[in-house]
Amino acid sequence: MKKSLLIFSFFCLAFTSSIYGQLQDSLQIEYSDEFALGNEIPVDFQITVTNLGFSEILDTELLSARFGFEKKIKDRFSLYVETEAIKLSDGIPSLKFTIEPRMFFSLKKGGYANPNLNGLYLGFGLSNSNLEDFLTTYLRVGYQSRLLKYGYFDWGINAGIGNDFDFAPNPVYIIGPTLKFGLAYSPDYEFNFENRKCDILKCYDEINYWLRMDLLSLFNFTSSTYFINWGSNLDIDFEHKIAKPNITLNHDFEISYSYSKFDAELIDFYMSSESIRFSYIPEVRVLLGKRKSIAKGKSANNMNGVFLGFAGALFYKLERESNISGQQLDFNKSVELGGGMTLGFQGKLLKNFFYEIKTVGLLTVEQDLDANDLDLRITFIPDLNFGYIF
What we know:
Distance between the termini: 43 Å
Number of domains: 2
CATH architecture of the largest domain: Beta Barrel
Structural class: mainly beta
Number of helices: 4
CATH topology of the largest domain: Porin
Shape: flat
Radius of gyration: 23 Å
Oligomer: single chain
CATH class of the largest domain: Mainly Beta
Largest sheet: 17 strands, antiparallel
């Protein structure tokens, strides 16, 4: 076990060093963006409330929130502590505690770190839950920033090792991206909202089309002696105007793959599952109030704002599981067709980033191509996207 921990530690260092170098080259920001983010405003500490949300995982409803406190220590260092509250529909609430010292780097090569807590950082963290004896140690490369006066985001990639001492003293390896998005507060944070708002949200950028890629679900990996769980998801959107200034057509292409395996020799149990999914969702979007915003000089001809969408949906899925002896069964194929409506809010952030918050309601019919069974489904999907504009 010591050998595996050592190898994984070296991998984490190489991984985070590579990510840091690439981010430093690609996240060079212009002076106007630095001004818009308030990078020159001194901040000694900040309180954050992030990821207030409701989701559904494996048919289990989950309600969670993260409460953080970060204190600046000298010029390049800070200490971040966090409590994450989690409530499952079929379980008691739990608390997850995290402590993470951070070192900040300048996005300008050879420059100084910001006089606040904005910027690119390398963190080393420890986290533990009050309900289980599970300790996680991780390295994190992240970029965090204030947005306007009270907004906040922190996007990064974690590479870590966890140990569940109640189950078995063996390491669990975890790699994946995370986003914290919500509110932040610092006393005496003098931010001029009117002068900087449109520098961040790019209100006056003329945009007739954009090609976007979501960064929140690119990959995830978890592994230990007894199980492996990994997946990847490529989600690319191409949106373009079809009637100026407020009607667009969005093409959402998504390919995802997931694999999981559980192999416990002590109890003679083996199970694995594998799935591949292709989807295409064409959607006509109406940007609500865009004409009035342009007429009043509050917006240019772009795709920022609240939208109402009318969507079609096509899904093709391949899924299979193993039997108890470990033999892989054939893929089960299915096709799902339907349509529905969306309501959301989207916009551009700085030079090359976007955000999208929406709720999708779909009525679909799924056909099992092997059994010729039909299944009618009604689904409502809350969705948060954050990514890169090419």
